[in-house]
Design goal:
This protein folds into three domains: 63 residues, no CATH class; 208 residues, Endonuclease Chain A (Endonuclease, Chain A); 161 residues, Endonuclease Chain A (Endonuclease, Chain A). The longest helix is centred in the first third of the chain and has 26 residues. Strand 11, helix 13 and strand 12 form a beta-alpha-beta unit. It is globular and about 80 Å long. The termini are far apart. With 467 residues, the protein is an alpha/beta fold. 40% of the residues lie in helices and 19% in strands. Helix 2 runs antiparallel to helix 3, helix 3 packs across helix 4 and helix 13 packs across helix 16. The protein has 16 helices and 17 strands.
Length: 467
């Protein structure tokens, strides 16, 4: 029989081989793009396995969530703070993992306060809003329309009516219910406040990658005071009065030169969302300052993975102690290796993480990394009270990192984040005391696992780059 006639009579054969050929083209295309982006071997293996199993699901998903650095005409401009151009003093290079580069010179600050208690953080936030005279700029990942969210929206509405410039930037995926039900923001907008959603889910389809979310938490008041940390706006973070189910987190207030760095990160995000530029108005009065801080943004709007490089440098440079507090511990191989080498060098490596994270998949994937670290001599503490959502790392009791950054691939390579490296004996002493409190309320060590479970846990590491 004529081959063409045969194929005409059996179109299912043409369809089968056509889909098979298309699968091969898709796999090669994704592989070439992964190589072009110089992705890690684990990321390449994860995507290729996904494409092999479900090629027609994996390919569109890769286009949505697989790209982490954006290089097209809709790309958000890189964060390049004007404050970096100023001449600043820097702390002793031995305690400064960033070095004295031109972009992240340490800024001097007159005041810095830490808030380990949710009620204190909420009080500080409300006090700052109530006392703002000219401007309030807020960037948030999750804003729930619960009792806490309503109270914040209510007072912002009041300040907008009083003539204060209120600008609220909300991540559209993190706050999806509010994004979908925007009538809840009508009074705030009618009062004169400007509200924008970062990467709206159903708008600007060629600008948006649903996997690249704005996880930064920034509050700026009158261009003089900034609040930041890990807390979103909802009852889980700011329950008043304190409840047992309330999450443990850390926020900080800073006053000084670092406020300008926070402002310029916010201004860059705001321009991307609204196409409007903002200008910083520095305070006229210069207060005595002695607290050094370096504000480091990370994410798709950065040309390099500066924060990741900083963490690696700080881990390799540590001489005595590294204390990591994080809700999600899913590092890449380089970070794990750096921590293991640090432990072998005699550095006291400590990890404090929740006994049960708020995502079941996280509990499974993290186990392999924690066991590997524990076997290398590190101490693992599982916090047994409410969900531990705080993010902080202390190096040699000389410097500390805190902010919105989790110790995982998503925070370090996908999300828009911001962290502060702080150099202050007083601040670090407070953080050490808080860390010890967490350890006192934790169980030490991971549970013993069967060989079968270990194999399963190690298998899940293939999917770690996407979490």
């Amino acid at each position: 029989m004529n081959p063409i006639a045969y194929l005409t009579q059996h179109p299912e054969i043409v369809l089968y081989h056509g889909l098979l050929a298309l699968s091969g083209v898709v796999a090669v295309g994704v592989l070439l793009h992964l190589f072009y982006q110089r992705r890690s071997s684990s990321a390449i293996a994860a995507w290729l396995m996904f494409i092999f199993i479900l090629p027609y699901v994996a390919f569109p998903l890769y286009l949505i969530i697989g790209i982490r650095k954006r290089k097209n005409r809709y790309k958000k401009e890189s964060v390049l703070p004007n404050s970096a151009k100023k001449s600043k003093l820097t702390p002793d290079a031995a305690g400064n993992p960033l070095g004295n580069g031109p972009l992240y010179d340490a800024a001097l600050n007159a005041r810095m306060e830490l808030f380990f208690d949710a009620s204190e953080a909420y009080t500080a936030l409300m006090h700052a809003i109530e006392n703002a005279k000219t401007s309030i700029h807020i960037s948030i990942y999750i804003l729930k329309y619960d009792t806490i969210g309503k109270s914040i929206i209510g007072i912002l509405t009041k300040k907008a009516k009083a003539g204060v410039q209120v600008k609220l930037l909300i991540d559209s995926l993190g706050s999806a219910p509010l994004y979908l039900l925007q009538y809840r923001l009508k009074k705030l907008r009618d009062a004169g406040a400007e509200v924008e959603f970062f990467m709206p889910i159903f708008e600007m389809p060629f600008r948006n990658y649903i996997n690249l979310r704005n996880h930064r938490k920034i509050y700026i008041f009158d261009d003089q005071i900034a609040l930041s940390g890990g807390s979103n706006i909802s009852r889980e973070y700011f329950a008043i009065p304190k409840r047992k189910s309330e999450w443990e987190d850390i926020m900080f207030l800073i006053e000084g030169e670092s406020v300008e760095s926070f402002f310029e990160i916010f201004a860059s995000d705001w321009r991307y969302a609204s196409d409007k530029k903002l200008a910083f108005n520095p305070p006229k009065e210069v207060k005595k300052a002695d607290i050094y801080a370096q504000i480091i943004p990370s994410g798709p709007d950065m040309q390099r993975d500066t924060l990741y490089e900083t963490l690696l440098s700080a881990i390799y440079g540590a001489q005595e102690k590294i204390s990591i507090i994080t809700p999600y511990f899913i590092p890449n191989d380089s970070l794990v290796e750096a921590l293991i080498i640090a432990s072998h060098r005699g550095v006291n490596v400590t990890l404090v993480t929740p006994k049960e994270a708020d995502h079941a998949i996280i509990n499974l994937v993290r186990c392999s990394y924690m066991r590997e670290l524990e076997e290398a001599g590190a101490k693992i503490y599982l916090y047994e009270k409410a969900m531990l959502h705080a993010k902080a790392i202390i190096f040699d009791e000389r410097s500390a990192m805190l902010g919105s950054v989790n110790f995982d691939n998503r925070s370090l390579f996908l999300n828009y984040e911001v962290a502060a490296f702080v150099y202050s004996d007083k601040i670090i002493a407070q953080m050490l005391s808080w860390t010890q409190m967490l350890i006192n309320n934790s169980s030490e060590g991971t549970k013993k696992a069967s060989d079968a479970r270990r194999v399963f846990e190690n298998l899940l590491r293939i999917f770690a780059p996407q979490l």
